[in-house]
Amino acid sequence: MSIQLNRKTKETDIRLQLDVDGNRQVSVRTGLAFFDHMLEQLAFHAGWNLTIDATGDIDVDDHHMIEDVAIVIGDALNQVRQARPGLARYGQRLLPMDETLVLCAVDLSGRPAAVIDLPFKRDAIANIATEMWPHFFKTLAIRGQFALHIKTEYFENHHHLIEAAFKALARALREALSVQTSEVTSTKGVL
């Protein structure tokens, strides 16, 4: 399923193309290299085709770009969620990356929630404020209308921590978005 979205504000201009049934064709340009790297990991490990072309006031700080990209990806995922009544709905992944271990679980229920445990011990990673990573995940879950839990079991390297979180999320979403049945995966009859 392919989604195209645009979001233009006074702070950012974002164009997104997402196909969750893709073959890992990924092109991301936000002007924040480490953020691009994380989004590439998300798309690759979820098996998506993803194109993001974004410009914005990154000379001010990283907040607007990271938040607005999360909004656009979340909106796209919500469209996919609503269009797939037989999706698996739940997904989880315990993911190691060298000395780091992160757990991610999602429920594509239509009820947003986010519990994010990323115990950073630094203020920034690659010039991006560490407070922006939980904010990205929370914004993604709210706009995507799903429950998201990320728990750090242990870590030493901050790069590995955030990359493991993105990869675990990717694998959990890949599982949750897979079509399992022709029926809605809820006893309520709706998600």
From TrEMBL:
GO terms for molecular function: imidazoleglycerol-phosphate dehydratase activity. The keyword Amino-acid biosynthesis applies. Belongs to the imidazoleglycerol-phosphate dehydratase family. It catalyses: D-erythro-1-(imidazol-4-yl)glycerol 3-phosphate = 3-(imidazol-4-yl)-2-oxopropyl phosphate + H2O. Pathway: Amino-acid biosynthesis; L-histidine biosynthesis; L-histidine from 5-phospho-alpha-D-ribose 1-diphosphate: step 6/9. Its EC number is 4.2.1.19. InterPro entries: IGPD_sf, ImidazoleglycerolP_deHydtase, ImidazoleglycerP_deHydtase_CS, Ribosomal_Su5_D2-typ_SF. Coiled coil: none annotated. Keywords: Amino-acid biosynthesis, Cytoplasm, Histidine biosynthesis, Lyase. The lineage of its organism: Bacteria, Pseudomonadati, Pseudomonadota, Gammaproteobacteria, Pseudomonadales. It is found in: Cytoplasm. GO terms for biological process: L-histidine biosynthetic process. This is Imidazoleglycerol-phosphate dehydratase. The keyword Magnesium does not apply. NCBIfam families: PRK00951.2-1, PRK00951.2-4. Its main location: cytoplasm. It holds the Pfam family IGPD. It is an enzyme of class 4 (lyase).
